[in-house]
Structure formats: structure tokens, C-alpha cells
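chain below, 812 aa
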Amino acid sequence: MPPVTQAPQSTGAALELLVHGVGGATPQGMLDDPRIARVTGDATAAIYRRTGDIDAEQHPERYRDRPIEEAYCWSNLTSGNGSRALWLLLLPFMVVNLAHWMRPTAKGRTRAVRVYGVLVRLVALSLTVLLTAAACEVALDLVAWQCAGVPDCSNRRSWLGFLSTAQGGWWSQPGRRLALAALVPTALVGLLWFLSNRTWSAYESQRPLTGAEPDDDAPDEDGPDDTPADRPIGRSGGPSVAATDATSAPVVRPALGRPGFWYGRRLVARLRAAHTAAGFLTVAAAVAGAAARHDRAVSGPVPDLLGRLIEATLVLGTLVVLWVVCRRGRSERRIDNRLDRAVVSWLPGAALALLVLAVVYAAWSRPGWVSAGSLPGDVTFRVLTVGQGALVVALTVVALGLYRRTPEPRTVMYGLGGPAVAMLACALGGVMSGGVAQRVADWLDGSGTPGMGRASVIDGPPVLLSWQASVIPVLLVLLLVPAAVLGVRTWLAARALEPEVDQEYGQKWPDAARTRQIARTRATAALTDSAPWLLGLVSGATLLLGAGAVAGAWVSGQVPGLALDGAGPFIEAVAEAAQSTGSWMVGFGFILFVTWGRRAYRDASARRTIGILWDVGTFWPRAAHPFAPPCYAERAVPDLASRMSGWTGRTRGRLVISGHSQGSVLAASAVWQLPAEARKRVALLTYGSPIERLYGRWFPAYFGPGPLHGLHRSVHCWRNLWRATDPIGGRVRLDGGAEPEVDRGPLRDPLVYGRTPEHPLPEPVLGHSDYQADPVFAEERAALLDRLGPLLPRQADGGSGEAQGSSGRSSG
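prediction:
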């Protein structure tokens, strides 16, 4: 990526490529015209123009005063019908995938970075096992083992009649009930595999620019961040021509500029096979474990040696899965289109075959076998919880070591954002799995309370799940303190901003209500910068409370309502209230979560509220968890890069890529992927951009100061607009040196304080929206086009670039 050189002479029209942000957008709204035509793309993501601009390249004289406008609409990649809200059920998988990309900047720490990636992938694997174990707990333990084995429970459920021991049918034996119930978690694992495979084909299978050369000097994902800083990188990975200029400072290739960054087929396929196998092995262990324990305890028709062989095979399969997950990370030096055939083809099939063998083994007739109590799920959930805590602690140690080697002041939480988010993913997984188990147990037990021994007919879920549910009210109470602190601090900040607002607008007789509104909006927008320490408090409290829940369940062996009997009336009442309240809060939160998710996908206003969090999560490729929601950027970034490269190469014209909010991150990522020749003809205009305020602080290895400075020097010119009232966008914080600074702002918002003859109605406080309504937008866009070089007329005679056909379709 060579330093900025003199802008080439432009021989064609200028193009503005608009990229919208979160919340979705229509091409009609982006182009401010109901008459549009699709230039290239499909129903999922496409580029549109006004119908009058279809043949714009053939008539450049019409566009001397304004650029041709194109709109890239990618909203269907992240929104659509309400059924997509089901992806929100996989939120823990998405969150742990974020932890992979949050590692601190590391230079020369290849081994530590590899360890970081392995630890995150192991946490992700534990979440898959946790989800499958929760499904086994509900289907195998609560339904097939406990309720179907107790006539008082099964008689209340007509659909359980054929499994009931009271009827003495073929399915009444415990092993056969478990074998039949195993279909539920097996189907869940199969569904996750199918969704991961199908969404890869639909979203992420688009290869980047054809002909991209391998970057032989850039390491894999597990290597250092940058190529050697003493050698600028050209398109082919060798020294660029600009490197011969002694006055040119070297520019390193950032990770997002590598040819294979947006094409992770090999790793996703490998992880998908491993996680699918892990799910099948978890179900097989739950089914075969109960039968093996029975065969070892009593003499029966089935030799215990068979059970021991199956358990040994399960251990061997687990070791293979761990090896597959730990062995390989991402490869980004080139477009890696290979597949590990043996792993992808044989591992899930072998695990499924072992599951079938375990089902047959458990279904073998054992006339004297009866189900009593509950399956030993407590040990499984304790091991998972303790293992996740240990992995998060180890991840914390590695992250701190990486941060101390290359400290960056703007990085959140001293580089501990990744471990904090990984802890949050484990907590979400535990809450969701435990909540479902608690609610199913309450439903099956009718008026009783499982685990409390009061008119209960079943033992209920593992004790640990009740302890985990009980700490939720405690955590919410603890969070009231930082929430109150934030509220008071915001109020004080708004009061302090009121004189500044009056002075900025120069009002002789200011309106107190109007001033208060503007100041309050600015103070509220600044709350975004307080998110890191709030997340740190939540993660730390979750780790401590989770450890307390494990200790309480391990020592007492009873649910909190019984474990604290005799500790005094007040403590007993608090324990029972926390247990019942936590259980209901989990169930209610689960329903509310799905409802909000469905509304967010169908209602644009609701989507804008939570859309930034979801779009940040699905922006990153699936590098840690293959069952996470699909990455839209693996489709959008190649789309944008192909369009810019094709259009500038064909027309030799100037191009401004104009990105709002999340669209600015896509635009910058696409510019990083461009060949050097195309970047000379491209200017970058960002507004309401979270590229530094959010991405630079939380993902320093990919959007930190080093990569952003490299982008600034590699693209010909860049301008960023921001407002103090914007809770999402902010400054890029780059020193332009001899060049104009990147940032311009804060823009005045609202544009007019009160009523004026030119603005007789009150102007709204725009915040994050409608940057194009500010006159500064058109001014800065024109300045960028001027910096790209003078416009020279060219006849559309099929010279260096062929004229567009009459259909208006263009290659890109």
C-alpha cells in the first residue's frame, strides 16, 4: 500500500458511491428519487442509480457540476422477515466470536497471539457443548428420565403416556426413553450445522477481487499484525514503486487489507465439523453414560465391557475434536479455497455413527432397570462452568501480556475487552440454558417447585442451574449503583454544557428549554464512552457471582432455598425470593428477548435502537464459532471493492465512497482491499462513523491507530464529519500532517437555535441521522473531488475503457 501520490488526471465523470448504515435503507431514500434502476447485484445486496443516470458514463458533460450518485443497499443482509429474529437465540455464539477480534495490538508476539486465538476457540467450543447439554437436560433428564418415570407426572401429560412406566409398554424402559429423547438434541445440532452451511453459501461464499496476489510477507491470523515496517507493500506483496522515494514514510499492510481476510471458508468448515461432532458426542455421552453406569452396578443381559468401550471411544473423539479446534486458525495471506477433507467429511459422520451406536446400546432390553432421581447432570454443568471460568482467566493473562507489549491509550479496559466479552458470552449461555431448564421443570411439575421438596413430583434440573438463576437478581441490584452514578454524572455534564451552548449560538435571550435539550442530548451521547468500564463491572461481577454459585452448589448440593435453611428468617426469605425471581426473570427475559428481536427485524425504528450492537457483531467473520450468525461483510466488502475497482479501471474517473455509520466501516474495509492503482482515484467520505470511537477502541489490532494511519496515507484523501450530539459516530483522531486533517467537526446540531425568517419552524436535533442535510456535506464532497484531480473530457469511443451499453448495466 504505497503512500499518497499525485492524483492522476481524470478522463471521465465523477461517481459518488453511497453506503448506508444500520437500520436499513431503501435505494429510493438514499437517492432521494422514487425512480431507480438496479445497476448490478441481486435481491440481497445491489447497487442502484436513478433511471436518468443509467447512461451517465456516455454523457460526462452532464455531470460537470455534480457527481453521478450510486447507492449500495445491503440492508437485506441483516434484516428481513421476522423469522430472522431466531438468530438472536444464538447471541452467545456471536458474542464469543467478537472476543476473537478484540485482542490488543501485538507486534512480534506470534506465539501469544496464537494462544489467544486457541483460548477463544475453546471458549466457543464450550458454549456449543453447553447448549447441547442444556437440550439433553430438558429432553433426556427432565422429560424422559424424571417425568416419564414418575406416574404422578406422566399421567398429567397425555403425550407422555406411551413412555410412562405405569403402562409398561416397550418404551417404558429408561434406556429406550433416553434413546427416543435423544432425537431432540440431535436434531438441534443438525439444525445448527444446516444453518451454518446454508448461510455460508448465501452470505459469505463470495470470493474477493479476482486476481488478488498472495501476500507472502503477511502472517496468518495467528501471526503479528503488520508486515515489516521498513518495506512498503505493493499490490503483489513486494516493494512498491513508491518505496524508492526517500521522503516517503513506509506504510504497512493492515490485516483487513490482506487478500484472504474476507474469505474464511477453510476455518469455518473446519470449526463447523468440530462443533457438530462435539454436539453429537455430548448427546452420545448423555445417552450411553446412564446405561453404562447401570451395567457396571448390576449384572444384566448387556456386558459392561461394551459400555466401557463406548466411553473410551467418546474420550478419543473428544480429543480429536480438541485437536481440530486448536490446530489451525485463520489464514489470510491468500484466498484459501482449500478444505480439510478428512476433517470436514469424516469427523461429523464418525461422531454421528458413534451416537447411533450409543442409542442402540442404551435401547437394549434391561428389564430390571428403573429411573429414579435425576441424571448426573450436576457434574457436567459444574465442569463446564469451572472450565469456562479458567479459560477466561487464562485469556485475561494473555491479553494483559499483549497490551503491555504494545500499549495504546485508547484501547478499552487496558486490552481486556476480549476476556470481558468472552465472560459475557459464557454468562449469556448459562442464563439461557439454565432458564429454559428451569421453566420446563416448573411446567412439568405443575403446582410444585422442583428441588424444594414441597409437593414436587420430580427432582428438577441440576442444582447449579438454580444457583445461577438466583444470582441474576443480585447482579441487577448491584448494577443499580453504576446506573445511578451514570445518571447523576450525565445530569451534571448537561448542566455544565448549557453555558457553552448559549455561547456557541450567540443568543442574547436564550431559551432555557431549548438550551437544556441540546445540552442534554450532547451529554447523553457521551454515555457511549462509558460503556467499557460498565461492561468491565458486569463481567467482573458475573465472574465472582458465578464462582459463588458453583461453590454454593458444590458445598450444599441443594438449591438456594433449601441450602440456607436455618440461617435466619430474613436470609431464608431472601434466598427463596432470589431463586424464584431469578427463574421467572430468565424465562420472561427469554420471551422478551425474542419479541424485541422480531420487532427489530420488522420495525425500522426499533432496529435503529439495537441495530448497531447487532451489526457490529455480525460484521466480523466467523473465526471462533461457526454457528454464530452469518457475517454480512464477507459479501458487502467484496461487492464494494469490486465495484470501485471495476468502475475506476474502466472509466478512469474519480470516485468518492460515502459511508454513514456502519457503512463507513464497510467503505474503509473495501478501500483497504483495493489495488494501489484504484486507490489513487478514490476518496473516502465518512460521517457518523464509529470507526475509531467504537472499532478503534474495541478492536485495536484491526482499527487501531496503526491501521487507521495506514488507511489515511494509502487512500488519496479522506474526510470525516462528526457531531457532539451523535452517540455512535465520532472523530477519527488522525493528524493529517501536511495534508488537510481528516476530521471536521463538531458540526453544529441543530443548525439553527430558534425560529428565524429562513427557518420559521424549529430545527430538530439530528444526532446520528441525516448528515447530508448539513451544507458542510456537499462542501466537503466537492473538496474531495477537487483533490482527486481536474476533470478532462473524454469521448466514449471505446478507448481505454469501453462505453456502457444501452442497458445501463456495468461490470463490477
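The longest strand covers residues 654-660. Residues 255 and 702 are 6 Å apart (CA to CA).
thats it, cya
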